[in-house]
Amino acid sequence: MAFSLWIDGEEVEAEEGQTLLEVARAHGKEVPVICYHPATTANALCRICVVEVERQRLLQPACIVRAAPGMKVSTQSERVRRARRTILEMLASTVDLSDAPEIQAMLETYQADPERFPEAHPRHVPIKDDNPVYIRDYAKCILCWRCVQVCAEDAQYTYAINFSGRGYETQIATFYDHPLPETTCVFCGQCIGVCPTGALKPKLEFLLETTGSPEGVLEQLAAHWSQRRRRRA
Ligand code: SF4
């Protein structure tokens, strides 16, 4: 059943069950998202989509909060913009966002200053290169959880990866940090498809970027296979 509510002062119609994000987007309102992806279950982890709802003390994550009759919602209030700016500043101070153009654009839109938390230190995690298909560079991971979701119930049902560690040390990992070929991973590539930061990347793309040419890629691959042959001999 349809009902009406107000978004940024404009009366709009919504259907029962629609989230504030869906209603806002259906009426041309810009609400940024990072952890949200249409192929995964919304989980409100990153909180970049927060909006202000009249008579609610806390800002509400638009990706999971359902629209209700008569709600008065603000998607761009000063409080909302300040919260988004702070989230972006915290992300940029600890994560390598060089391969995340959409988040970089958000930093500009919200005038976020990545230097605002000088005491925070960027995560230095060695690149995991343990299989022939893709590399994992968790220094670029924002812990959005999309890869874990598509690896589990949202798509592949293989459960090869999950959160590991606590607090600042949290990262995505395989069980007991085993190399991917020793896990349930079937190399379907869906995790790469939903990763918003380049933390997961096809091996060929990575080699092309690091060597700078197709010849460089071939050299690297030849070296890799001859090393493998020597190890097996
Ligand atoms: S590896 Fe990519 S998809 Fe997975 S949690 Fe990190 S940023 Fe998100």
In the CATH scheme, the class of the largest domain would be Alpha Beta
Biggest sheet descriptor: 5 strands, mixed
* CATH architectural grouping of the largest domain: Roll
Number of helices: 7
Q: Mind telling me the C-alpha Rg?
A: 21 Å
Tell me what portion of residues adopts beta-strand conformation. 15-25%
Distance between the termini: 70 Å
Structural class: alpha+beta
- Biggest sheet: strands side by side, in what order? 2-1-5-3-4
Instruction: State the order of secondary-structure elements, H for helix, E for strand.
Output: EEHEEEHHEHEEHEHH
Shape: elongated
CATH topology of the largest domain: Ubiquitin-like (UB roll)
Low-confidence stretches: none
Bound molecules: iron/sulfur cluster
Number of domains: 2
Oligomer: single chain
Query: What is the percent of helical residues?
Result: 25-40%
Q: How many runs of DSSP E, i.e. beta strands?
A: 9
Global mean pLDDT: 94
Give the tags:
about 30% helix; about 230 residues; Alpha-Beta Plaits; five-stranded mixed beta sheet; elongated; two-stranded antiparallel sheet; alpha+beta; 2 domains; binds iron/sulfur cluster; 9 strands; Ubiquitin-like (UB roll)
